[in-house]
Amino acid sequence: MSAVLPLPRLLVLSLGGTITMTASADGGILPTLGAAELVAAVPGLAEVAQIEARSPLKVGSASLTLENIAAVAADISAGFAQGVDGAIVIQGTDTIEETAFALDLLVQDERPVVVVGAMRGPQQPGADGPANLHAAALVAISKEARGLGALVVMNDEIHAARFVRKAHTALTSAFVSEMAGPLGLVAEGRVRMLARVVRPSLPALAVTGALPPVALLKIAMGDDGRLLRAVPELGFAGLVIEGAGAGHVPAAIAASVGEVAAQMPVVLASRTLAGPVFERTYAYPGSEIDLLTRGVLCAGLLTGVKARLLLTLALACGWDRTALARAFTAYG
């Protein structure tokens, strides 16, 4: 008679979000449910893993801070040190792509870290939270998901943290990975990985203390540069610019970009949200060649919000310009 193997251990941390929200007396929905209640509401989840459920926060995800996520990363790393086999972070969908990428940078472990939420609250028709949480649990304990870094599981699709973004305000299919597609899916209770990503080899990002403020500025037609020029005076330690197209700004503010880049690290991303920032195609004033010559760094394939996270954490660790350039090149 064969021995019964123990169930894998799974750490579930809930931070709030739509998946936790119920109706308030004044109208609208508010975060009220905790991790234990969410886990208990998913049929069959207790048969998947031994679950330790905790609720560090109950907030809308727009109110989360990078300091919050750094604390979550520390909790996950501590859980892994104690033998946990996988981790799930439950939160609102508004900032899932940021949380996932921050955890991808901060948690240095082969074991899966899965971020999950819901587009519909638990009291709405067709609530997707229980199905998403069940799929996330299957991914978090699967051998197939090991070594892929942080993942987002929504609508039965498995996305890599570096590529995923929220692309719709309402649909349950709101999450996309335009540059690579989902890595896999969950179907018939089985994790099916279709592709794998290699995590960039970066130095450990051991964050302690306060994080430096980094600004994110989207460039629009006719931008006169007054917000750009104000960034150093406002006490920021770095700046990410979302340029138009492949990474361009109006010619009239190109010199101002260079002046700011002489005072702090400036990273150039694209506001198009998909595709790489160019490095050697356009040469007119305000183009990517011009801006790189003026001292900006290239975000590669990272969106502006993710480039901001990497720059913030890297500056917190004291990385110099050479180390910063190497890190962003790894995402090119």
Q: Helix and strand layout, with pairings?
A:
Layout: E1 9-14, E2 21-23, E3 29-31, H1 35-40, E4 50-54, H2 66-81, E5 86-90, H3 96-106, E6 113-116, H4 129-140, E7 150-154, E8 157-160, E9 165-166, E10 175-176, E11 184-187, E12 190-193, E13 214-218, H5 226-230, E14 238-243, H6 254-261, E15 266-270, H7 288-293, E16 297-298, H8 304-316, H9 321-329
Parallel strand pairs: 1-4, 1-5, 5-6, 6-7, 13-14, 14-15, 15-16
Antiparallel strand pairs: 2-3, 7-8, 8-11, 9-10, 11-12
Textual characterization of the structure:
The chain is of the alpha/beta class and 332 residues long. The strands form four sheets. The chain has an eight-stranded mixed sheet, sandwiched between helices. Strands 13-14-15-16 form a four-stranded parallel sheet, sandwiched between helices. A two-stranded antiparallel ribbon has the order 2-3. Helix 2 packs across helix 3 (96-106) and helix 3 (96-106) packs parallel to helix 8. The chain has nine helices and 16 strands. The protein has helices at 35-40, 66-81, 96-106, 129-140, 226-230, 254-261, 288-293, 304-316, 321-329; strands spanning 9-14, 21-23, 29-31, 50-54, 86-90, 113-116, 150-154, 157-160, 165-166, 175-176, 184-187, 190-193, 214-218, 238-243, 266-270, 297-298.
Please report which band the strand proportion falls in: under 5%, 5-15%, 15-25%, 25-35%, 35-45% or over 45%: 15-25%
Tell me the distance between the termini: 53 Å
Summed over residues and divided by their number, the pLDDT gives a mean of 96
Query: Taking Cα atoms only, what radius of gyration do you get, to the nearest Å?
Result: 21 Å
Question: Could you give the order of strands across the largest sheet?
Answer: 4-1-5-6-7-8-11-12
Please state the overall shape, judged from the principal axes of the Cα atoms.
globular
Number of E-type strands = 16
Major sheet: size, sense and barrel closure? 8 strands, mixed
Identify low-pLDDT runs.
Answer: none
What is the string of helix and strand elements?
A: EEEHEHEHEHEEEEEEEHEHEHEHH
